[in-house]
Amino acid sequence: MKTFVLASLASLIVAGGVGPTYSQETDSARGERLFQQRCGACHQLATTRNGVGPHLQGVVGRTAGSDESFKYSPALKASGVTWTAETLETFLANPAAMVRGTRMTQRFNNVEERRAIIEFLGSR
Ligand code: HEC
Fold first, then answer.
1. Which domains does the chain have, with CATH numbers?
2. Is 31 in the pocket of ligand 1 (CB under 6 A)?
3. Predicted confidence (pLDDT) per residue in 57-71, tens digit
4. Number of C-alpha atoms within 13 angstroms, CB side, residue 84?
């Protein structure tokens, strides 16, 4: 918390001096915004409700395709993947290349955005 406050203060000071307004956004706020924009249409994080995709609460450390409340593709269920920062990184860059036959097909090409989103997921 202390670090968070200090980091926010530092970025406020920087933004007040030279930086454009968006530099006031903290990393975790950025991760949250990107999650809502890129994943939020299909995935819930604040609740365990499923949508087009499964909820992602506590997804880091979970075995792929293991939430009983969601009907996954047979491919994802059989993948044997455990979600870590590394496997998420590979999956998001190209889901179908990692898990052939997955129903999540959208690729996320921006590495900075992927990292921010994964870090945010890891904090929930
Ligand atoms: C267009 C809808 C859609 C979008 C957008 C989307 N996903 Fe998915 N996602 C899915 C579907 C559908 C599945 C289930 C795939 C399957 O069963 O093969 C899934 C599965 C997943 C899984 C596996 C979960 C588990 O329980 O094993 C992760 C992790 C995931 N998505 C992360 C993300 C992230 C992070 C984003 C945003 C960068 C995102 N998804 C964007 C539809 C989407």
1. 27-122 (1.10.760.10)
2. no
3. 999 999 999 999 999
4. 5
